[in-house]
């Protein structure tokens, strides 16, 4: 079968190679899945660079999220691939305990983009931040894969959603997603804009997959008793929170590593999947798939995500 593999860590465009390899054999508790669609996530770029918290042995196939068909049964499923046999290939391995039924309302590309971003958003906004109807939610990178899911989930929860993006093209995308206010950080001060939009109160919940300056600015426009959810550091800069500032303003800084729930509360992930599938069925949420590319285009797609040039999700169709 064909599979993209990383032989040496580095930039995706330079280090990913499309190889002909044997179809992987499932280990204990694993299943073989024919890949119908694989979503490109920022962790795929980090894995290729050797900067992710998981470091598969070289060579390995990246691609952490997919929609596939279980070999032998034909069941259509979504979930995360079992590395080193990732989803940027014709076949991948998945842990049987981490298979989820693909929502019938979503096609393969949308279904492949549904699991990680929407689960992360659900846990971040509901379990960690306890977002309530009528509150104001600030979403950084609102046109990206993770941010776009948070915008939709915030609207579904009855919040007023402010999206921060980088550039006019991404601003248009965030508006189409339903954000009530979109701020282009390249042309305006998002801190001042948030304060103006909220009458000086600030955002009740901040959803931050960016870190760096986005986090620092968020501390200046979070509301009294607000909550900042730290989702990731796409900017490449990990901020050092000033706890004295959190004390003075009475806001909370909440970490979210969604993958840990698989260890500590796996049933919560299944419950969230049921809730999210119901939202998808009634059209309240729908993954933003900005591009669908053939398997041969996977390396370039990962590079685009690594460089911050994409909106929504790019999906690879083997």
Automatic annotation (TrEMBL):
Its EC number is 1.-.-.-. Residues 1-20 have a biased composition (Basic and acidic residues). It holds the Pfam family ADH_N. GO terms for molecular function: oxidoreductase activity. Keywords: Oxidoreductase. It is an enzyme of class 1 (oxidoreductase). InterPro entries: ADH-like_C, ADH-like_N, ER, GroES-like_sf, NAD(P)-bd_dom_sf, Quin_OxRdtase/zeta-crystal_CS, Zn-ADH-like_protein. Residues 1-23 are annotated as: Disordered. Residues 11-316 form the Enoyl reductase (ER) domain. This is NADPH:quinone oxidoreductase family protein. It comes from Streptacidiphilus monticola.
